[in-house]
Amino acid sequence: MDRLAEFAAFVVYRPVPLPENPTYIASEDVTIIVPTIDAGEEFKEAAHSWLVGKPKEIIIITEEKMKGPLQDLANSVDPEKIRVLTVPFANKRLQMSHGIRNTTTDIIVFADDDAIWPPTMLPYMLACFEDQKVGGVGTSQRVQPCGDRFTVWEVLAAFRLSIRNIEIGSSTHIDGGVACLSGRTAAYRTVILKDPDFLYGFTHDYWLGKYHLNSGDDKFLTRWMVSHGWSTYIQCCKEAELLSTMKPNWRFLKQVLRWTRNTWRSDLRSLFMERQIWTSNPYTAYTMVDKLFNPLTLLVGPCLIIYLCFKSAKGSGSDGFHLPAWNIIASWFVWLTATRTAKLLPHLWYRPQDIIYVPAFILFGYYFAIMKLYALFTLHETGWGTRAGIGDASAATAAMDQNEKLQQERVHQLGQGHYTGTQPIS
User: Fold this and answer.
1) What are the extents of the domains in the chain?
2) pLDDT, tens digit, for every residue of 302-352?
3) Which of 146, 168, 406, 419 has the most CB atoms at less than 10 Å from its CB?
4) Buried b (16+ CB within 10 A) or exposed e, 303-338
5) Which residues have C-beta within 8 Å of that of residue 219, sequence separation ≥ 6?
6) CATH, range 2-249
7) Each residue of 372-419: pLDDT tens digit?
């Protein structure tokens, strides 16, 4: 019944329309921040799609040893609009915070280096900020294959995104909440992110007080919006639907594992430590609780089927079951196929050929349930998992803290008329 209500809410959901006289204009009010360490040719296509919306500036933040290659890449796209900055170590949160400090516009849009936007992306995101209570805005998403055709892993990822679009659209319609403003593309008011408390908390985020977190930045940002009284909105429509690549091989499973650990950590904090979500977005809180128990409820199904087949083997009577085993298994399989296919109808509408992958998606669902339980017991593992070159978070934070201290001293000296250095203060 709750899934039916969710789908009904998605059907009646409507995106925020474009205002006649917009308060925010991309060319004056938007900076796009792109934290990356290994952007390649796919960045060019993504950057060209961002430039169509005419942002004021694009800032790429990378580690020092990658500045040369990324500067060449930026120059090949638009050297006037794209600026490359560096941090001492590869660390996504530190890269993002350095970009925030170097932003002068009212709106910041974080984007992955392979996120391809439609031409209408920026106007539709900015439309949500006409409501002065909105602090963060997200979008719907689709998968773009890395090669000429989809691999089974990319289809599984596309299925997951299709279901996610339904979930975020319905929760936005019901109570205005969302479990996560995806880091692939999300917009925020700069004034929120320049708050020293945010910048410190963002770069000094520890699980259980001792495991320094680098990934999970989008979950942190979403929780910050909720805990500090800001609203969020999802523009779930074709005009604001990005295309993103996924791992086209088994490494997709490592991505999912990292996301799952981040979800466990963040949702447990939202529900039981910060707790504001219970009053601000009760339906979203309910969906979080539902997902906490989902692995257990999903795995109970096969156990009951095995039990009923065992009872069936005893034959009819007081100790037996009235249906034969083949009937039980067939009925269960038909039910699984029907319910899982129904969830995927939005995806199958434009890619009906992917229906052959529905059995694989069903199997993946059970694998994911086991993975989710494994993730729960390994939340102390905070490594990236799919990218080489991610530096030690604590070392990077210490280096950046020292750098900020030096900059503050320079500002103080400049104010006293003593600073004569040649390095810019940014």
Assistant:
1) 2-249
2) 999 998 888 887 765 556 667 888 888 999 989 888 888 888 998 999 999
3) 168
4) eebeebbebbeeeeeeeebebebeebbeebeeebee
5) 180, 262, 263, 265, 266
6) 3.90.550.10
7) 999 999 999 987 655 554 555 555 555 555 555 545 555 455 454 443
